[in-house]
Amino acid sequence: MSMDWQDLMLTLPDGQQIHAQHGTQSGGGNKPTLVFLHEALGHIRMWKTFPEQLALATGCNAFVYERLGYGESSPITLPRADDYLVPEGEQRLGEVLDSAGLGEVILVGHSDGGTIALIGAAALGDRVKGIVTAAAHLYADHLTLAGIREAVERYNNSDLPERLARYHGERTDLIFRAWSETWLRESCHQNMNFNRWLADIHCPALIMQGKNDQYGVPEQVTDICAGIGDNATPLYLDGCGHVPHLEAPDVTLAAMTPFIKQLL
Question: Which of 97, 207, 244, 250 has a Cα-to-Cα distance from 258 of 20 to 30 A?
Answer without folding.
Answer: 97
